[in-house]
Amino acid sequence: MGKSTRQFIAAAVFLVIVAVLSGCSSRAVATVNGEKITAGELSQRLEEIKSNLEKQGFDFSGDKGKAFMESLRQETLEQMINTRLMLQEAKKLGPLTPEQVQEIIKPLKEQFSSAEEYQDFLAQIKMSEEEAAYILNLQEQVTGDVAPPAEADIKKYYDEHLEEFSRPEQLQVRHILFFVDGGDKGYPVQHTDAEAREMAEEAIAQLKAGKDFAELAREKSEDSGTRADGGLYTFSRDEAVKEFADAAYALKVGEYTADPVKTEYGYHIIKLEKKIPARQDPFEEVRQDIAGLLLEQARQEKFGEFMQQAKDRAEIVNKLAGKE
């Protein structure tokens, strides 16, 4: 057999494989009013979800991993069916011009601090900007007439959820942090344990010599989140790692830790600025927030009922339903 003949056969086999794979990926795993969702679309979505879960440490190996993957496959397909149905219902209201799309999407865009964050959000929900605008328009058309909650309902929610509006005692501290990272934690600065402790001890010596704590924090602290404010940090006991909280709560106002405090992040020097007593937020301070919450709940309920009715009317075929 000549070389050209072998190449021809290899090419022919390759084309057959591609054709088979293409046929598999275009096979419908569900249809929504005749519009199909393909195996390829589902596989791509699943692979992205699986990859994200693996980055968080989830293990898909073994029987449990296999069972979870099958459950995830069915749940993901159901979400894709619901999204497809929503888009179909949205487009029944008529086409949107590019100008209308931008007008509708503008409030959503303004919630993000950058264009990159906004695009990341669209990528996460697997929608184009236009599709998101259609969905938002549908929600507005369906729920726009929902009335604001009555005053009695707002007060009732407050009275029944007092714990949501209570604040535990908080401490306002300043702190200076030196990271401990041997290159495996991904912190912005790397030091050995001994190096970080020595740096913290040197900082304490400067404080004892009269250096202003806030000024030193701005110069030395490696915590980028608090450094610009002179290390200022306000927290309740359960909001900080135990070692940090224990050391801070043991201080008197105006005191700082005489020795470096070791946590999972590294070595801290902590100064207690003030204690903020526990308090109950008065009704008038949170009334507007509760009203917004109840209005949003009412809108979600009405939209959910609308979509359930649309689903009841729709012709939906889910070929994975009931499979284990």
For the structure shown, list the relevant keywords.
Parvulin-like peptidyl-prolyl isomerase; rotamase; disordered N terminus; isomerase; three-stranded antiparallel beta sheet; 324 residues; Trigger_fact/SurA_dom_sf; 2 domains; 9 strands; extended; PrsA_foldase
Provide structural commentary.
The protein has two domains: 1-86 and 292-324, no CATH class; 169-277, Chitinase A, domain 3. The protein is built from eleven helices and nine strands. The protein has helices at residues 3-25, 39-55, 62-91, 98-109, 115-125, 129-143, 151-160, 193-208, 213-220, 242-249, 283-313, and strands at 28-32, 35-38, 166-167, 170-179, 232-236, 261-262, 266-276, 279-280, 316-318. Helix 2 crosses helix 3, helix 3 (62-91) crosses helix 6 and helix 7 crosses helix 11. 15% of the residues are buried. Mean pLDDT is 90; it is low at 1-23.
**Structural domain count:** 2
Number of helices: 11
Based on CA atoms alone, the radius of gyration comes out at 29 Å
How many strand segments? Answer: 9
For the record, give the distance between the C-alpha atoms at the N and C termini, rounded to a whole number.
48 Å
Percent helix, as a range, is 55-70%
